[in-house]
Amino acid sequence: MGTIYDITETHEEPAPKPITDADVQGDERRWRRGYVPVAAGETTKADGTPDYGVFGPDTVVWEVFTHPAMVIFHHAAQKLAQDVYLPIQAAVRDYEPLNKKARAGVFTLFDAMERVTRGAGMHVPLWLGDTATAEHMASWLHKIHTPLKGDVIDSGRPELGGYDAVSTRETLWATYTEMHPMLCAYEAFAWNGWRAPKRLPAWKRDKFMDESANYAILHGADPDEVPHSMAELDALYAKYAEFFAHSETVQNQLDTGESILDVSARVGKKNWDKTQSKALKVIFVAILGMELPMLGALPRPYRLAHGLSPAKATWAAIVAKLFVPVAWFMQRPRFERKWIRTLWGPDGQRLIDSARKVRAEYLAAHPETLKSPQHA
Predict the structure, then answer these.
(1) Residue 149 scores a pLDDT above 80
(2) Residue of 67, 73, 186, 248 with fewest CB within 10 Å of its CB?
């Protein structure tokens, strides 16, 4: 399920405290939820074969997610996609702990930084853990999201009705606003050696979607509705188009009418001190510094749903192309190793490193995996 719905318990302080480098780095408790993740391939199934979990080394999902580009670019891609699915934003408005802290007057940029890094990092066990690890995290996410229900998605568009975070509709789109942006970011910014980023062949894009189907079903999506190809995903976007839209009112609190974004900005400014710049640096690398190029990497309907004019939507796509040399630098080993621990946590780093090793060994033994079905 998409990370935007995380309602992990928070502990509010009466006043913000200065933060340190150790606070920014955090420990495994920021990401871990009652279970030490086991890396894919470290256990075996009943038949004695390696347990690779939901995906595995022969999948396109692993090809995409284990690439160094994802360490840097996944956070922004997913956030920008989920920011325009209105039921997700309604749940954020009504239940997100950061918004509760903002209303209580204690929200800080450090809180936002923790949320940004925790949200994506908690999903690595689902992608790169063994079956028991993935099932544990899926069950935990379902449990914490079950209470997230509301009668109003958008006060400015009451005809949209309400939302239920564990309904088949919401779990479907929590999954695909996570997986599809991952693919888009890879195709836009992932260098392979000196080979510039490019769109994957059609068969690989369809395989990515087919592989994501069981993942969506694990979270509670309707098996009869999940897409198995890019064409089927496009058809779903068309079916649910009314829920992907720019809205000036979806963030308005139902009791006061004030935008929760305005409240957060005001409280964050009030609680600012110079140590918060440490958190701002992380937010800049993960989100703010690449917002426009990442929008350009996403499909045009996403850009328009963010409120960009047609001209600005086109400009964002151009900026994404201009950003490619910067993306090369940001996925170099020295840069990536500097940020992987901060952005994904100790468990996430361990699982990513393990999956890269497992995949390299698997491909060396099964080179046919890299070939198209027609040439395998």
Answers:
(1) yes
(2) 248
